[in-house]
Amino acid sequence: MSNKIFASLKSIGAYAPKKILSNKDLEKMVDTSDEWIVQRTGIKERRIALDDELTSDLGVKASKLAIKRAGLKTRDIDAVICATLTPDFLCMPATACIIASKLGIKNVLAFDVSAACSGFIYILYLAKSLIESGVHKNILIVGAEKLSSVLDYTDRSTCILFGDGAGAAIIGTTENKKEAILDIQISADGDYAHLLMTPRSRATYPKDEKILQYLQMAGNEVFKVAVKTLTNDVVEILSKNNMRSSQIDHFIPHQANLRIISAVREKLDFPIEKTVLTVHKYGNTSAASIPMAMNEAYEDKKIKRGDLLLLDAFGGGFTWGSSLIYFGGE
Ligand code: UT7
Asked: Does 322 contact ligand 1 (Cβ within 6 A)?
C-alpha cells in the first residue's frame, strides 16, 4: 500500500516594484501626515508599479524565483492559480493564464481566485486539495496586485494604505507530515460586501453612468470586524490542531495594519520577534502581502525546513482564513 501524500509548501518568491511612495510623498498629495499614517497603520512607505508593469508582470517575477528555489523547471508545473483583485483584464482572460503564458507554461489548469486580501490563503487551500487528490504534483500559486491602479489618490482614507507587489509559492508533495501543510481554514460572509469594494461591473449596473472607479472602504468598520474575526480564527485553528502559540516558529499575518497584527499577537501572547512584519515598507498589498512577508523572512534566513508557520488573512467579501504549515522547502 502506498503512503499518504501530503501537500507541501516547497518554495517562496516575491517581487516588489522599485518605485517607493513614502508618507512624505503622500503629504504633498492629500491632507495627511507621516505621523498620522505611522501611528494608525504602521506604514512608512509602499511600492508602486510602472504604468506599463501589469499585475501579471509582477506575478511572473515572483514566480520565477519560486520555481527556481523549488528546483523545478517550468515544464514541471501542472497548475497555475492566481489570487488578485487587480487582474490585467476584468475577469477574462484570467491573470493566471497570462502568467502561465509569459512563463512558457502550456496546457495546464490555470485560473484566478477573487478573495481579496485572503486570496493567498484561498489558493493555498485549493492547491492543497488538488495535490492531496493525487492528480497534481507541482502547483504554482501567485498572489499579485497592482492596487495603485484602483486607488483614488485624492482620498486620504484609502490611498495611504495600499501598495503593489507579488508573491508566489510552489505547492508540491511530501510523505512527511512534518514538512506538510497541516491545516487551512477559510471562510466568508457576504453580508459585509458593501464595506470594502472595487469598481462596480457594468453587468450589475448597466445604466449607471457614474460607475465607481476606485476602491472604497469603510476603514473603521472593517478594522473592528477584522480584529474580532482574526483573533477568533487563530485561536480556533490552534485549538483544533491541539497546538499552543509557543509551538509556532513564525507568525506571518496579512500586512494591513500594525494595530490589527498587534491585537492578534497579544491575544495569542505571541512574541514580536517571531512575528514577520513588512507593513512598514510595503503597506497592504492584498493577496500578495502574506507571500511577500514570508519571502522576506525566508531571504533573511529566518525560515528553515520543518519550521511551523501560522498565517492569517482578512479582506473584502468579507473573506478570512488561517493556516498552519510546516515549511517544506530548502
Ligand atoms: O486588508 C483588508 C482589510 N483592511 C483593513 O484591515 C483596514 C482596516 N482599517 C484600518 O486599518 C483603519 O480603520 C484605518 C487605518 C483605515 C483608519 O484608522 P482609524 O483609526 O479607523 O481612523 P478613522 O477611519 O476612524 O478616522 C479617524 C480620523 C477621521 O477624522 P475625524 O472624523 O475624527 O475628524 C478621519 O477623517 O482620521 C481621519 N483620517 C485621516 N487623517 C489623516 C482618515 N484618514 C486620514 C489620513 N490622514 N490619511
From this structure: no
- pLDDT of 210 reads 61
Where along the chain do its domains lie? Answer: 1-330
Name residues whose C-beta falls within 8 Å of residue 35's C-beta, 6 or more positions apart in sequence. none
Take atom 36 of ligand 1 and give the residue whose Cα is closest: 157
DSSP string for residues in 34-78: HHHHHHHH---EEEE--TT--HHHHHHHHHHHHHHHTT--GGG--
Confidence of residue 151 (pLDDT cuts 50, 70, 90): very high
pLDDT, mean over the chain: 96
261 lines ligand 1 (CB under 6 A): no
Catalytic one among 97, 138, 159, 254? 254
Alpha-carbon distance of 3 to 282, in angstroms, equals 42
How far, in Å, is the centroid of ligand 1 from the Cα of 217? Answer: 10
State whether the beta carbon of 32 lies less than 6 angstroms from ligand 1. yes
The answer to whether 254 is a known catalytic residue is: yes
CATH tag for 1-330 (out of 3.40.190.10, 3.40.50.280, 3.40.50.2000, 3.40.47.10): 3.40.47.10
Taking alpha carbons only, the member of 130, 61, 143 closest to residue 96 is: 143
Distance 75 CA to ligand 1 centre (A): 46
Residue nearest atom 23 in ligand 1 by C-alpha distance: 220
Q: Is pTM beyond 0.85 here?
A: yes
Taking residues 58-66, report their average pLDDT.
98
Residue 231: which pLDDT band, with cuts at 50, 70 and 90? very high
